[in-house]
Design goal:
With 253 residues, this protein is an all-alpha fold. The chain has helices at residues 2-16, 27-32, 37-49, 61-76, 79-92, 97-105, 111-131, 136-160, 168-173, 182-188, 200-222, 228-252. The protein is globular. The relative contact order is 0.15.
Length: 253
Amino acid sequence: MIGGGIAAVRGALGFLTRLPVGHRDGDWAAFRSAPATFPIVGYVAGTLAAVPLLTTGALPDPTVALGYLLAVYAVLGIHHLDGVADLGDALVVHGDRERRREVLKDTTTGVGALLAVALVVAALALGGLALTGLPPRHAIGVAIAAEVGTKLGMAAMACFGTASDEGMGRQFTTASDPLSFVGPALIALPAAALTWPNPAAAVSLGGALAGIGLPWYWANRHLGGINGDIFGAANEIGRVAGVHLGVIAWTLF
């Protein structure tokens, strides 16, 4: 049991981040059938990506924001942005469900892809800039909660979602069921208290989870379900939503 859990975490870190965790046979299978590993990755990656926020007040705010942006993609990689790009093209294409599915699989980069990626990256950079207005402890708490929340959203997609085709999305959705979501939810819950007594982290966690719902809803309506691109796009959109809503909550409360 312990060995299987380690394999699942190693598989999750290897797939969802750029961390040099190594790879062994069975890691991928262990990961895709263990949705609880998603928020675990959120804690690890979120903490590492938030390190530049420790320099708030010592360095210019735009520099700190740039450091946060670079740290996010250094730790987590840019492969999920491919999902954002494909979703952007699918959003603007004219046609039926099958046409949109074709666009998602097409390797050609269109205007919709460029705009979608630019908006997501710019929104995250602006979120990082907004984080510099918080005390470092609270800024880090919001950043971690956003990462945990967006990974919890991916776990929710795996546990409750329906795949649109035979690709990677189906490998997750067929390996978990709604009851499997209890574990990820319990693991993610402590992240809500990272800015206590201010509710910013709780709002960030919930906001990231809600952000996941936007591409998920669109995919169910226009594609007939989710796939690997939607998982990736949802991860990026959820993070942005979590950071911005967390900062708004800290400002208001």
